[in-house]
Amino acid sequence: xxxxxxxxxxxxxxxxxxxxxxxxxxxxxxxxxxxxxxxxxxxxxxxxxxxxxxxxxxxxxxxxxxxxxxxxxxxxxxxxxxxxxxxxxxxxxxxxxxxxxxxxxxxxxxxxxxxxxxxxxxxxxxxxxxxxxxxxxxxxxxxxxxxxxxxxxxxxxxxxxxxxxxxxxxxxxxxxxxxxxxxxxxxxxxxxxxxxxxxxxxxxxxxxxxxxxxxxxxxxxxxxxxxxxxxxxxxxxxxxxxxxxxxxxxxxxxxxxxxxxxxxxxxxxxxxxx
Length: 274
Hints:
- This protein is an all-beta fold.
- It has one helix at residues 245-250; strands at residues 2-4, 7-9, 43-44, 51-53, 67-72, 75-76, 78-81, 87-91, 96-100, 103-105, 110-114, 119-123, 126-130, 133-134, 137-138, 147-152, 155-159, 162-166, 169-174, 178-182, 185-187, 198-203, 206-211, 214-216, 231-236, 254-256, 260-265, 271-272.
- It has one domain (2-272).
- The chain contains one helix and 28 strands.
- It starts with a strand and ends with a strand.
């Protein structure tokens, strides 16, 4: 992020082309071990994609490509290995789902994607290694995709959830979403010159309950003339309600080791956010 004459800029980089999903099925039927699993032990899904969809609204970086997904809907005590798929868990438009005590890793674009007019409750979940891969190895690049979770025109709550090793954003709430987040963490890659990461991001969306969260290790240092920085918390709005910097402290939210810990920009300020 470049700060000059009280203007704040958060950079965009590029739009990711559709990642291939080798061996994927284009059926809309989820893996049999997916939604509705309420067993105490974790179920490991096989390494194929369950289906594909085209988002109602453009995704990160304006991406409108069809996306493959590993798991459809919610579940309990799942271990979702999303290697070769764009999305780990997809919540279709106009639906309601709950995700509890679940691990999601190695999706190419999104750990969780919540499509328009849906509601998702997330509790005690871990998301990691989201973004570009070299073979089966997570290899983050400067491409503008790789979000732990993405809500579009949707609602929900996130509690006791940890997102780490993400290429772009830990939590991204877009397109007039309204999501509460409590007791959750975003841990960036602690690397420089790869991508302008953001831990928690609300863009033109409404902040519901937001407290007791922590964001750290988000960096993007290019040099003395850089025009981008990574943030722990990025709250930008033209239409939604946002928190002020003072609210973060009052709500017991913490940030450390980010290029910029807090950015809160209401309507009418010169801010480009992504």
